[in-house]
Amino acid sequence: MNASTQLPATGAGPAGTEAVAPVLTGAPAPSAAEHGAGDAAPAAQPLRADCIADSAGGLTFDITAPQGTRPVWSAALVLRPRGDGDSAAHEELRLPLGPNGSGRLRAVLPSTVALPEGRWNVYADLGDGRDPQRLLPGDNDLRPLVDRRPLAGIGRLGVRIPYTTRSGSLALRSWLRGPHAEAADIVVDAGGTTVTGRLYGAVLGPGARAEARLRGGAAEADEVAPVVTVPLTGDGCEFTFTLPYVPLAERWEGGDARWDLWLRAAEGAEPVRIGRLLDDVPEKKAVFVHPALPVGCSAGQLRIGPYYTLDNDLTIRVTDDGPDSTGC
After folding, report:
1. To which H or E segment does residue 88 belong?
2. What is the greatest pairwise CA distance in the chain?
3. Residue ranges per domain, the chain?
4. What fold characterizes domain 180-320?
């Protein structure tokens, strides 16, 4: 389906101040050629957008448009998923773009709009017959996202963080999870990793536990990947657990072994990936760095420690600590 989602106008208020329901409107705006603009149309001037976050997870985009720009009713801020394939080419979200009262153009992405998890390029369609153009990042005010603490009973957690791509354009990283296990404090010592966090969309019950699952550990489709489980301590939505390193070292078979961390709120509950989403850092991997400590064993020495993946999920890495290490 070649369709776009168009949101009704939200006015010039702050992001996330009113509930908005998506409405399907069909294909994206026509190109310049379809409007008959021809080759005489001048080149589009680069546009820059400032982003303002609110504590509910909404974003407001203020764009400085070229002098003399007269936005029409069809003007929109366009979000398109990054990546290859048909979905990236045919799915987009269109947000109404109109004057903000101070000579700029404004679009609002409310927290009530469910933006699918992934990375999104940001464009401006001024309704002048040109193809939507990529936006450059301006000033970001993301202070409300720092140490954001939604209500624990929230059914589905939405997180959006603007960032700059390698090419210098504006993009968004979006997460949409429910339930969600948010990692907070992480303490690393030679015996293991201790994680303290908060569970959203569920509460702890009998049989609650953390699970470390070996990534790629199932060689065949009908096999189950190795799992190391540890009990949780905590009450309600707050949790703490310590994952010892010895069981991971004993299962090491060479190379880099990655153990992804999950949480089960109760016996029989579906597992929830543990990650860190509630701040203003779009990619934690290079920012929140934890040590990989040496762990000795009869056949050599390993290094084991936690890290955040490119999706900001928490994982434990096990690797050898030298050419003489052959495993435990």
Report:
1. helix 86-90
2. 76
3. 3-177, 180-320
4. Immunoglobulin-like (2.60.40)
Q: 156, 104 in Cβ contact below 8 A?
A: no
Q: How far apart are the first and last CA of the chain?
A: 53
Distances, alpha carbon 99 to alpha carbons 51, 65, 122, in Å = 16, 10, 18
Please classify residue 175 by burial: count the beta carbons closer than 10 Å to its beta carbon, then call 0-12 exposed, 13-18 middle and 19+ buried.
buried
Write the CB contacts of 247 (distance below 8 Å, at least 6 apart in sequence).
228
- Residue 295 φ/ψ, nearest 5 degrees: -125, 115
User: Residue 259 CA to chain centroid, in angstroms?
Assistant: 20
Q: Do 113 and 20 form a contact (C-beta atoms < 8 A)?
A: yes
Tell me which range, 32-46, 98-112, 141-155, is most confidently predicted by mean pLDDT.
98-112
Residue type (1 letter), 261: L
User: 271: helix, coil or strand?
Assistant: coil
Of 23 and 182, the one with more pLDDT: 182
Tokens of 210: 């953390």
pTM here? 0.80
d(Cα 145, Cα 185) in Å, to the nearest integer?
Answer: 17
Residue 249 is inside which H or E element, if any?
helix 246-250
Contacts of 154 (CB under 8 A, 6+ apart): 178, 200, 201
Band of the pLDDT at 103, cuts 50, 70, 90?
Answer: confident
CB-based contacts of 213, cutoff 8 Å, min separation 6: 225, 226, 227, 259, 260, 262
